[in-house]
Amino acid sequence: MISEIKKSGPIPFSDYMARCLYHPELGYYARPEAVTVSKEGDFITSVSVGPLFGKLLALRLHRFWLANGSPPSFSILELGAHDGSLACDLLAAASQIDPAFSKALSYLISEPLPSRRALLQSTLSDKARIISHPAEARYDIGALVANEVLDALPVPLLLFSQQQWHEVLVTVTDGKLDWDSRPTNPSSAGLPDLTLSQDYPEGYLTEGPPALHHFLSPLSECFEKALFLWVDYGLDAASLYHPARSAGTLRCFHKHRSNVHPLDRPGEQDLTADVNFSAVEQAASQLGLQAHPILNQSRYLTHCAKDWLLSQPSPKEISQFQTLTHPSQFGNRFYALELTKGEVLRAFP
To answer: Fewest CB atoms less than 10 Å from the CB: which of 33, 57, 286, 326?
Structure first.
């Protein structure tokens, strides 16, 4: 990357983030042998807590399937499947919940990185079909499941300095990666109009939305009728771009430490930013999808679990549920956003 920047000049931070995470050989997610999502890795997710997260999502999808006529064929498309754990948990739960539902399911995983596809195929065998692009999936009815995917989409970095907005660039100084910037119009980076009338302090740093229309458009075409479920951490636009939030939300994770510099360890640490849920809802609406009220993970999973909680779950499952819903752990930091397409019954809560 350094030699390329020396040759061609500074690159937008969004390009740098994309290469660090998704380069097919050197990217952070292109290293299937590296332990990243675990207590021994760089961070944990709701899936890491145990199989209950997948079970509660299976209960949610089962309710949607029932409400829409129990179709004999129902496809689930997962994004960001990592090592396939969520797929295994969800499919195992589906067979326990309702054999007819389990029989109707076909499970797909869209994974652009060849090394990650190979790992998933080896791990899941015939449990799931692994595809390289959503264009390979065309179904009448189904659901999309994405846990902590939107936060890993490359974002532009924007700096307010000397009463002007600048786009943050990555350059090379004395053979090392360094920062640069150039003046920009915030609207060209997707910032909402409300930011133009705010008084921002000198040095205010934030992230613009990723290329959401480009990302969501092929996904919106996978199904004629569908439920799209996104679970992630984030904020609405008014909160995300408040003048008091002067340092942005970009974070790096390495060995469970979040104070690593973004230009350190390219390809060896996770880069993530809070999801702009307002921008996601706007992009979805432009693609003909309907957005439903967003809920924090605690309220969402509690709705999904209402029948399960009455079934005398084991102490181990109760412990997992508490971790997933407790305000100081996953409950308040994460949110669930549902989108629907076509004439469907959402059946929630």
So the answer is: 33
